[in-house]
Design brief:
By secondary structure, this protein is α/β, with parallel strands linked by helices. The protein contains 14 helices and 13 strands. Helix 2 links the parallel strand 2 and strand 3. Helix 3 runs parallel beside helix 4 and helix 5 runs parallel beside helix 6.
Length: about 375
């Protein structure tokens, strides 16, 4: 835990980070890909959107810092964010292949659509590691969480919140984007807990994980069911949770029913403190980002023993079997364990969470600086 906190602290200062390009732009000059290299390597990092706060606030800076640390300051990260556009992500991917980066970490917006780009990278001798979401095509490895467990944790939280009233309770499901390979796993895990135990009254998919789309769909659910007839909302991530809660407020809700989430965004943690959001599935993303950087560097440097030690799991995609993988554990974060999760891991400080707006609610659950 201390090591992860140190990584985050270091990553927060731009002055402490090594050079990083920007894509679409991509900056800097890449070096030729080769099976084994020294410290002078270039890691391409492709993240999917900016609506999910952790990507810009944590994943990107932590990966930059860890690559620099592992390469004695000689390695660098070339970074691009697709801003929820699959076409843009494909262009960014192809730019990185053309620039001859040594390895690519990609969090694919559309797992199937990215497959031709992954193949081009392999043909160019550039290994691709799927990050956070499993991509199709010939990827070298995968680092994420047990995403079915994420859904299970969320589903159990709904049941816990509803208690003895679960069987007669109407629940709205606000799923993610079907183009995201994690979508099916989140949903499968949640339904494994909720089916036949609650009444799933309305269910929606959310294109590109857009909070605006989720808010529109939640307004439809409220109109269809009636505000007072919604006992809980399964929201697949924190962005959707925030949109759901906003729609409920605008409809005049004086008490927000239990709403789930995922990613432990700062605003979500604050909503949990205030009682507006019931929980979030906390995936220790600092550890995920750190391990992804290690895997990328070890792969390029041919450090097979270290790489194999990180990828002891295997997963299957529609195009590939037994992909070497690392799956980081998942925790249900509620107001009862904020100290033991995001604060203990150094993700947020009490001061960051307990701004004046939340000071009274923080004091009520024992959060004090």
């Amino acid at each position: 835990m201390r090591r992860l906190a140190a990584v985050l602290t270091a990553s927060a200062s731009a002055l402490a980070l090594t050079a990083c390009g920007a894509v679409d732009g991509i900056g800097g000059s890449g070096s030729s890909a080769s099976p084994e290299k020294g410290d002078d390597i270039t890691v391409g990092l492709l993240l999917p959107d900016k609506d999910t706060a952790r990507f810009e606030d944590f994943d990107h800076p932590v990966i930059k810092k860890e690559v620099a640390t592992l390469t004695h300051g000689k390695g660098k990260v070339v970074y691009a964010n697709a801003e929820a556009s699959q076409d843009k992500q494909s262009r960014q991917f192809q730019q990185m292949v053309g620039q001859k980066v040594d390895v690519i970490l990609v969090d694919a917006l559309d797992a199937k659509a990215i497959a031709p780009d992954v193949q081009k990278a392999k043909d160019a001798g550039i290994p691709v590691i799927a990050y956070d979401r499993l991509a199709q095509g010939p990827i070298a490895a995968y680092v994420s969480h047990d995403n079915e467990l994420v859904g299970e944790v969320q589903g159990r939280a709904v049941l816990e919140a509803l208690g003895s009233k679960a069987a007669t309770s109407r629940v709205v499901m606000m799923n993610g984007d079907p183009a995201d390979t994690n979508y099916a796993r989140f949903k499968e895990g949640a339904l494994g807990e909720l089916e036949d135990r609650v009444r799933i009254a309305e269910e929606y998919d959310t294109a590109k994980w857009s909070p605006a789309v989720a808010e529109t769909n939640m307004k439809k659910a409220i109109k269809s069911l009636g505000l007072d007839n919604i006992a809980a909302v399964y929201a697949a991530n924190d962005g959707l949770a925030g949109a759901v809660i906003q729609a409920l407020k605008e409809a005049g809700a004086t008490r927000i029913p239990p709403v789930t989430g995922q990613d432990a965004n700062l605003d979500a943690v604050q909503r949990i403190v205030s009682g507006e959001q019931y929980m979030t599935a906390y995936k220790p993303f600092i550890e995920e980002a750190t391990r992804a950087a290690e895997m990328a560097v070890y792969k390029v440097q041919g450090r097979d023993i270290q790489f194999d030690a990180l990828t002891r799991d295997t997963v299957d995609s529609p195009t590939q079997k037994k992909i070497p993988a690392m799956l980081v554990p998942v925790v249900s974060l509620t107001k009862d364990n904020i100290k033991d999760t995001v604060i203990a891991d150094g993700v947020y400080t009490v001061k960051e969470i307990c701004t004046p707006k939340y000071a009274t609610a923080c004091a009520a659950i024992g959060l004090r600086g």
